[in-house]
C-alpha cells in the first residue's frame, strides 16, 4: 500500500484545497500520472501518483482543506493482491468492474463542412439544438450562411451536445470547430432506470455553461487570457474548467482564426433619433448574405469603370410565338415556355459577336471565355442569388427553361450549392417581375457585363410611319468600360434587340 500525500506547497504556504480528482477508487494509475489538483492562495499544484497500481481510497475529497504532508489517498501497487472490497458504511455499493469504471464517453468535434471552392468562411445563422440536448446521428445541429447559400450541419454521431464553440452570429473559417458531441452519451443519459431501479442514473458529462464551480486558478487564467467559460472546454470532474484547459483554449485561439461577428458594410453615421421614434424602431442584425451582397455591389462600383447603356425592344414577335406554341411546347417538354429562354439565347448569340462582354480582367490580362455560363439572378426571401446555367450557348430552349425552373426552385428553398453559383461569365437580371420599368443593374464581379430586363408595358411607338400600341420593354446593359468600349456595348444590345424582335434570326444565326 502506497500513500499519496500533500507535497511541499512553497514557502509560507501551509495548506491547500483539493480542487479536482482526476481518478476515482478502483481506477488503474501509472507512475507519475496526475491524480488530483490542489489550489493554494496563489498557485495550482498537481499531485502525481508515486507508484503504478490501483487507486484504493480517496481520503481527502474535493473541496476539503489539507495541510502539508496530509494523507490524500492510497494506492495498491501493481502486482499486489487486490484486497477485498471494504465499504465504509453499510449499504455501500460494491466496486464496479474495472472495465465499466474506466469506460469513458468519447468526445467528437463538429466541424464546418466543405463550403465550396474559394469560400473561406461562413456565419452561424441558427442553432437547432442547445447544450445538453440529445442528438441523433445526421440530425441537423445548426445552419451556416455563406456569401450565397445556406449550409446545414448534421451531427457526425449520436450523443449529447456538450458544447457550442461558435454561437449564432459568429463568423467561422472553413473546417473550424463548431461544437462538441459526447458520443454515446445519449444512451447513458436516456438509459431506462430498469437496469438499476434503485440507483439514480449517473449524470452525463456536464455541458459548458453548467452550474459547476471552476478551479480558482482557471478563473484567474481566463481573466488574464480574455476568455469566457463558454470558450473553454473543461476536463475536470463534471466539466470543471482547469488551469490547463484555459492554456489549451488560449493556444488554440492563437493558432486558429478568431471567431468574430461578421462586420456590416461601412455606412454613414446614423442621424440622432428621438426616444419616441427609437421606441417604435426595430433593430435587426444584418444577415451574412445581405452583408455580402452589400459589400460585393459596393466593390463592383469601386473597382470597375461601370457604365450603362439602354435600348428598348418590341416584344410583339416573342409574345405571338409564345402564344402560338406554348401549349405544344409544355406538352412535349414538360415545362412552360417563358421569356427567359429567348433572352438567354439572344444574349448567347450577341456574346459571340462581342466577346469582350463575355470576358474578365485577371491582373494585367483579359481572359476571353469561348463558352457561356449564364447567371440568372433570382430573388429569394433571404436575398439575391445568381445560379449559373452552364454551357447555356449549347442548350435548347427547353433545356434552358428546365434549368431555370429547377434552379429557381432550389434558390427559393435555399438548397443551392456553391458550385451552382460559381463560374458565371455573364448575368441576366429580370427586375420586370417586380414591376421595374427602368433601372441600371450593377455588375457581378469579375464579369464585365450584365443585362437588365424590365416590365413589359404597352406604349405608343411609330411603325412604318404609323403610331401603334406595342408591348415594349426597356433593356439596360451595364458593362466594365475598362475592357468593353461603347461601340461594343451598343452593338451587343442592338444584337439582343434584333434577335428578340425577330426570333428567326436565332435559327439562322444572323
UniProtKB/TrEMBL annotation:
Keywords: Acyltransferase, Lipoyl, Transferase, Tricarboxylic acid cycle. CDD domains: lipoyl_domain. It catalyses: N(6)-[(R)-dihydrolipoyl]-L-lysyl-[protein] + succinyl-CoA = N(6)-[(R)-S(8)-succinyldihydrolipoyl]-L-lysyl-[protein] + CoA. One of its GO terms (molecular function) is dihydrolipoyllysine-residue succinyltransferase activity. It is an enzyme of class 2 (transferase). It holds the Pfam family Biotin_lipoyl. This is Dihydrolipoyllysine-residue succinyltransferase component of 2-oxoglutarate dehydrogenase complex. It comes from Paenirhodobacter ferrireducens.
